[in-house]
# Entry
Amino acid sequence: MGLLEGRKGLVFGIANDRSIACHIAKSFLEQGAVCAFPYLPGEKNEKRALKGLEEIGATSPWLLPCDASKDADLDATFDAVRERFDTIDFVVHSIAFADRTYLKPGKFAETPREVFAQALDISAYSLVAMGRRAKPMMPRGGSIITMTYYGSDKAVPGYNVMGVAKAALEACTRYLALELGESGIRVNAISAGPIKTLSSMAVGGIDEIFEWVSRKAPLHRNIDADEVGKTAVYLASDLSSGVTGETLFVDAGYNIVGL
Ligand code: 0WD
# Structure
């Protein structure tokens, strides 16, 4: 029997077959979970998300259009899921956005106010907005999982406003964990090492980061997105029943190196 047998929930953030959310979905489905897949509205996005899900063997996946920066979309998504699933056990938040013009070394001080606000809204506030909607649907408790990166804590050239958004996201994880703990809901973040996806390719200088990590990380390699999937299964399952408010690194150990 799978670790997530009989568990239901939402996996946000499948843009295509490379998306981290797609690898998380693969691990969740293998462990017996039932998932709804909200995607950023748009015909192309829907096609790519569907293709990604078909590649991992999902049979007639449930795709729902949802722009996480819109309250009405979030309401409609959680309402539809309540109607079909009644209660849920997990939410995977694997979304982020920042205008790529400002994701280049030397561009941080240039970040306009609206670019900053949008990055924090979509990449950090959306977790709070989801947590609020998930709470009444998790009467037996549950697990909320988000995705972050080392650039929240250290200034990584080119990561810029996204680093600020990830710092806010990790703080949101702790505050949500503190508040939702009473309801038995755990909230954790996975801090993944760099993985080749649509989003990471928007960060200027990313190839250098891959090369640096493979040389400096204790495991002397970059990580595989399936390793994030396995950690997400741990966080969604009872194996992690005593863990909340944490940022768990899945980065081949890169973050512990001081040299
Ligand atoms: O190296 C990496 N790839 C890492 C990614 C290392 C550590 C963390 N992460 C994080 C990202 O910051 C993000 O939070 O993992 C999460 C997933 O990112 P990903 O899988 O690397 O990237 P991608 O496949 O592009 O998925 C992110 C998706 C968007 O993709 P695009 O490329 O279309 O912007 O987030 C979704 C969208 O599908 N998204 C939204 N979904 C709903 N509403 C919105 C929105 N407003 N904006 C973006």
Notes: Residues 13, 15, 18-21, 40, 66-69, 94-97, 122, 147-149, 192, 194-195, 197-200 surround 0WD (CB under 6 Å). The two ends are 44 Å apart (CA to CA). The chain has a mean pLDDT of 97. The longest strand covers residues 185-192.
